[in-house]
Amino acid sequence: MEKNNVPTLETERLILRMWSRKDAEALYNYAKNPNVGPHAGWKPHESVAESRLVIKTLFFPNMVWAMVDKETGSIIGSIGLDLDSIRPDVASKELGYSLDESYWGRGLMTEAAKRLICYAFEELKLTVLMIRTSDSNRRSQRIIEKCGFFYEGTFRRAYKTYDGGVREMRCYSMLREEYERQLANLT
User: Could you give the CA distance from residue 87 to residue 84 in angstroms, rounded to a whole number?
Assistant: First the structure.
């Protein structure tokens, strides 16, 4: 698949940059952890080759950034914008992310998500940004709420996971005007 060039973005503690093929081992190092992928419905990676394939077939054709810790230079996660399958005819994207478990609880994903929210509304000129998670993924729900998304509802038995299971899907969204209100409240 062809690479979808994404601009390099920065936050206080992170660099968000385009993935490269040579990042496969770094992706594998955190994606093999059974506490990371299954929360989002994907299976832990079984090999560096599998991580390389994910970079090639999922990350390159979509807008997915590697999250790099400025302090260590290590890749610690991914964050991206994908098609919003619920609103196909609206200027809308779906936010998604994953983070190395050893970096959980430090506010890094919230920091990265807020930067991508800004990019989505300011640069891509979206009218809606949505995100989905499961009822059991409380960590992701906290990030979503800290970022200012609004809970829309839960679709029952709506998401098929890698192991054949089917689970609920909690949907959240942020409208452009809600994003703009948040900005206005900061000043």
Answer: 6
Given the candidates 3.40.50.1380, 3.30.420.40, 2.40.50.140, 3.40.630.30, the CATH classification of the domain at 9-186 is 3.40.630.30
Identify the residue with better confidence: 41 or 58: 58
Q: In which residue are the tokens 């081992």 written?
A: 25
Q: What tokens does 178 get?
A: 């809600």
Contacts of 67 (CB under 8 A, 6+ apart): 14, 15, 16, 75, 76, 77, 78, 79, 99, 108, 112
- Report pTM: 0.92
Q: Give the residue extent of every domain in the chain.
A: 9-186
Angle between helices 108-122 and 176-186 (to 10 degrees): 120
Q: Are 176 and 167 in contact (CB under 8 A)?
A: no
- 160 CB neighbour count, 10 Å cutoff: 11
